[in-house]
């Protein structure tokens, strides 16, 4: 995607840094922050991997025939279960600049809760999970301008991958990525642990 003539890397980087600053501000000051009030004074911002456009990927969309007939039950951090519908499958190629890392085709499912009409929920684990990133996995939310159809393209930017609120407070219950979204590669992009 970095070789897309319409992609301006400087604008992308500035927008990404602005989103990160806004999130840090929210976590440190907002009454609904998942960081307990007594810890907000010592909070000096999240840790992130360096912005890397090679993790901004163009994907090909596949649409499952009847999502309601095959719901996905995701376990939660509190031992519960949440029902989702697998509404898209996203296939993408990741090209590595590092000669020691092979280019890889990845597949991730995107989910929606029944009766909602919003962003696609894309929880995932990768080889950084539990080491460089939160042990419960990370999330992305994707929004398409129109309804997605078979063969469409949508951009997935792993630089926007974030840690769920349950990493900061046990009062939050978060879905855990299902096994179909466990990637066998490291994605060093987005939020990371200290």
Summarize the structure in words.
Helices cover 13% and strands 27% of the residues. The protein has 194 residues and is α+β, with helices and mostly antiparallel strands. The chain has one domain. The strands form 3 sheets. Strands 2, 3, 4, 5 and 8 form a 5-stranded antiparallel β-sheet that branches. The protein has a two-stranded antiparallel sheet with strand order 1-9. InterPro entries: DUF1684. This is DUF1684 domain-containing protein.
The rough form would be described as globular
User: In DSSP terms, counting alpha (H) and pi (I) runs of 4 or more, how many helices?
Assistant: 2
Low-pLDDT segments, ≥5 res: none
Chain-averaged pLDDT: 90
The overall strand count is: 9
| Radius of gyration using CA atoms only | 17 Å
Class of secondary structure makeup: alpha+beta
Helix content: 10-25%
SSE string, helix = H, strand = E? Answer: HHEEEEEEEEE
Strand content: 25-35%
Q: In total, how many domains does the architecture comprise?
A: 1
- Largest sheet, if any? 5 strands, antiparallel
Terminal CA distance: 29 Å
Protein name: DUF1684 domain-containing protein
Region (Disordered): 18-48
InterPro entries: DUF1684 (IPR012467)
Pfam family, one: DUF1684
């Amino acid at each position: 995607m970095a070789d897309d003539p319409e992609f301006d890397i400087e604008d992308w980087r500035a927008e990404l840094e602005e989103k990160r600053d806004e999130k840090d501000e929210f976590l440190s000051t907002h009454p609904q922050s998942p960081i307990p009030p007594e810890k907000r004074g010592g909070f000096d911002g999240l840790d992130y991997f360096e912005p890397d456009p090679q993790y901004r990927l163009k994907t090909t969309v596949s649409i499952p025939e009847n999502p309601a007939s095959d719901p996905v039950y995701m376990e939660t951090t509190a031992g519960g279960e949440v029902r989702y519908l697998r509404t898209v499958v996203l296939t993408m190629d990741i090209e590595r600049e590092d000669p020691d890392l092979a280019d890889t085709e990845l597949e991730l499912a995107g989910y929606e809760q029944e009766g909602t009409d919003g962003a696609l929920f894309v929880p995932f684990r990768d080889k950084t999970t539990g080491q460089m990133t939160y042990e419960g996995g990370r999330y992305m939310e994707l929004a398409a301008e129109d309804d997605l159809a078979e063969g469409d393209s949508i951009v997935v930017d792993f630089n926007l991958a974030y840690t769920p609120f349950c990493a900061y407070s046990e009062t939050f219950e978060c879905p855990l990525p299902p096994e179909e979204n466990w990637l066998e590669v490291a994605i060093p992009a987005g939020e990371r642990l200290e």
